[in-house]
Each structure stands twice: as C-alpha cells, then as structure tokens.
Amino acid sequence: MSKFRNLLAVVALGLIASSHAFADTINFTVTITSSVGPAQIPIGTVYTGSAHYEGSVDPNFIGYPPELTSFTFDFPGTPSSLSDMAFAFLQREFIGAPLFVELGHYQLGVPYGSYWLMDDYFQLFTTDSPGGAHYLNNSEYGTVAYSYVSDPVSSVPEPGTLSLLGTGVLGTFGFFRRRFSGRTA
To answer: Where are the domains of the chain?
Structure first.
C-alpha cells in the first residue's frame, strides 16, 4: 500500500511541475540582407522585437495560436500600440508547428513607414505618389530569427494545482480519520 501512495505522490508532483507556463514571450531578430531601395539600410543591420501572449502554451502545441497581447519592435516608425498596426498577430505554418510573429505597418509617404514581417521574412516598402495615387515599391529585405522565453512562473497557483493539492489533503485527512477511529483501510 505504501508503494502505491509513493507512486501517487510522484504523479502529483509531476502534474504540479507540468502545470506551469511554457512560452509566453517570443523574441525575434530581423537582419537586413538586401538593400535595393532608397532607404539604403546597410546590409547586416539588426532590429529586435518581442511579442507577448497570455496563457500557458508550448511553442509546439497542437491547436490554434493564442492572441497577441503586446509587442515591441525597434524598427524606425513602428507604433507602440497593436491597434495602430495594419495587422499584428501570432501565426504558424500548420498545426503543431512553432509560432511566429506576423506584423504589418503601412504609413504612406513616411520613410521606413511600411513593412511586412512574416515568419522568417522581412520586407520594407517605399511609397511613391505620382499624380496622387499611392504605390508601394519593394525595398530592403531581411531574415527573421526567433527564440522563445518562459515568463516567470506566477506565485499564484493555477486552479488545477489547487484542486490537486486539495484532493491530496482530503485523502490524507480521510486516511488518518479511518486509521485513528479504529477502522482499517
């Protein structure tokens, strides 16, 4: 009987350890690899950013990407608010693949104002306005690399951990109650 209780204790500890968040922040780095437009960003220039989402999600989990809650990107002209982006969300190639960031910002007539970052690809656009019409022309290109960072584990236990702990306490209480009241388990 004591071997069974020891096994239950090990399983309970494993469940508690596995209930913490995996990756809540994705850091990304953009490296300019081609400079063909009027912006003339030097090849090798690096810009960094991060994307944060809520929840306990493994980067390789099976399911749909969580909602992006905030981001940073030090590329010139990038707004600080998600609502000011043309689009900003997390994506994946297929279910079970790692998450990546997709950001789009369009600001016509502003240098560095329009770009698209998707998966491992970055593209800067320049704008022309001949005769009042706006055109986007391809400009600088870059590659994107990602790293996943676990947020600090909260000091507040998750509900699953609390219920597991409560079940253990009730079971232990029941065991000792039977034992001391003269009943055998």
So the answer is: 20-154, 156-185
Does the pTM exceed 0.70? Answer: no
pLDDT given for residue 11 in this prediction: 45
Rounded-to-integer distance, Cα 62 and Cα 80, Å: 30
Q: Residue 108 has which token pair?
A: 């016509």
pLDDT reading at 3 higher than 80: no
Instruction: Give me the count of residues in the chain.
Output: 185
d(CA 35, CA 75) in angstroms, rounded, equals: 15
Q: What is the mean pLDDT of the chain?
A: 75
Largest CA distance in the chain: 96
User: What residues form DSSP beta bridges with 25?
Assistant: 52, 149
Q: How many CB atoms lie within 10 A of CB 78?
A: 20
- Residue whose entry in the numeric block shows the structure tokens 């909260």: 154
Tell me how far apart the alpha carbons of residues 11 and 1 are, in angstroms, rounded to a whole number: 16
**Structure-block tokens of residue 27:** 């850091």
Over residues 11-55, the pLDDT tens digits come to 444 444 444 445 588 999 999 999 876 667 899 999 999 999 887
